[in-house]
Design brief:
Layout: E1 12-18, E2 21-27, E3 35-36, E4 41-42, E5 50-54, E6 63-70, E7 73-83, E8 85-89, E9 92-98, E10 105-110, E11 116-121, E12 125-131, E13 137-145, E14 156-164, E15 169-173, E16 178-181, E17 184-185, E18 192-199, E19 202-212, E20 215-222, E21 227-232, E22 236-240, E23 246-252, E24 259-265, E25 271-273, E26 285-288, E27 291-295, E28 300-304, E29 312-316, E30 318-323
Parallel strand pairs: 3-6, 16-21
Antiparallel strand pairs: 1-2, 4-29, 5-6, 5-30, 6-7, 8-9, 9-10, 10-11, 12-13, 13-14, 14-15, 16-17, 18-19, 19-20, 20-21, 22-23, 23-24, 24-25, 26-27, 27-28, 28-29
Length: 330
């Protein structure tokens, strides 16, 4: 296949089907292609610092360095952090990416100075990352090949882990939790879990997605009890608002691999669409209680959560936006 210094050793393209959705994953890059020197560029003032990973517009597969964009200024670069997904809260960060070998995936914890602390190997392609608001727990979703339930050795499924951020190791896996639906145990060989979002006032509590058949259920769970409760259908990649009253999510449009961003009320579970009309495949972030930020794969945008206004470009050549709380020192 050529030497390890070749521009690309091999491209392994796999169709990843999760609850009816299709994903293309590219792995096995050469070592010198696992990261990009691209830099994010602020297109508007976000009114609050935002952490992002740089996205190479020419090759979005590559790990990007971590930056903090403050206003219209790129304030800091994590020179030793290159990630496909990044998240940060309360002095604790998670960086998911391709290892230097180009054929493995890793998770690295980092501190408030963007310094890498501990690294452990992931079981598949990084998909989602979150950290609880107190920095106690992290959450990681990866795609994994080889599950036989879809009748193909090349099929993908998900694995979603809760991580002890201080110990830098997974301590729970959602696939091993008990699921309750309408007061009864709920099981299925095709269950896939993804997109954890932690309660901002209680890191033991979280929400996530369960995909099974054509359904995408919103779950409420607890780390301590290893129990998940089905709340409603039609919710993917939930994201709790800072006040814990609303959940932003992506809503599948029919059976197609297109989504509409919506926001639901936690108390009533009723939802409404936001003004972004493009299909967005992302676990969105809340810039504040009124504004969502998210990536379309190459740039970061913002839109009002109440359905008013319009989407605006916030940061070019960036992804994985993370709200930085007031008082955080980076």
């Amino acid at each position: 296949m050529g030497s390890r210094n070749a521009k690309i050793l091999v491209a392994l393209v796999v169709l990843c089907v999760v609850g009816g959705g299709a994903y293309v994953a590219v792995a096995a890059l050469a070592p010198n292609e696992t990261s990009t020197d691209a830099n994010p560029v602020a297109a508007a003032d976000a009114d609050a610092p935002v952490m992002v990973r740089a996205v190479d517009p020419g090759d979005t597969r590559l790990n990007g360095r971590v930056f903090v964009v403050d206003g219209t200024v790129t304030a800091r670069s994590g020179k030793d952090l290159t990630c496909e997904r990044v998240y940060y809260a309360a002095g604790h960060g998670l960086c998911l990416g391709v290892a230097a070998s180009g054929v493995e995936y890793t998770a690295t914890t980092f501190d408030s100075k963007l310094r890498p602390l501990h690294t452990f190997t992931l079981t598949g392609l990084p998909s989602r990352a979150r950290v609880s608001s107190d920095g106690r727990y992290g959450a990681i979703t990866v795609f994994v090949a080889g599950d036989a339930y879809r009748g193909s050795s090349a099929a993908f499924s998900t694995r979603t882990y809760v991580v002890d951020m201080a110990a830098a190791k997974p301590i729970a896996q959602l696939e091993q939790f008990q699921v309750i639906k309408e007061g009864k145990p709920f099981e299925g060989v095709d269950f896939n879990f993804w997109g954890i979002t932690f309660d901002p006032t209680d890191s033991n509590r979280f929400y996530a997605t369960l995909g099974t058949g054509t359904h995408h259920y919103l779950l409420e769970g607890e780390v301590s009890t290893h129990e998940l409760k089905v709340l409603r259908d039609g919710v993917e990649c939930p994201s709790l608002s800072p006040d814990g009253k609303e959940i932003a999510f992506k809503s599948r449009m029919g059976s197609s691999d297109t989504w509409r961003l919506k926001v639901l009320d936690v108390a009533t579970l009723k939802d409404h669409p936001v003004a972004e009309r493009r299909s967005i495949d992302d676990q969105v972030e809340w810039l504040n209680d009124d504004t969502l930020v998210y990536s379309n794969g190459t740039n970061v945008y913002a839109v009002p959560a109440d359905g008013s206004g319009e989407a605006k470009l916030l940061i070019r050549d960036a992804g994985s936006p993370v709200r930085i709380e007031s008082g955080e020192k980076l």
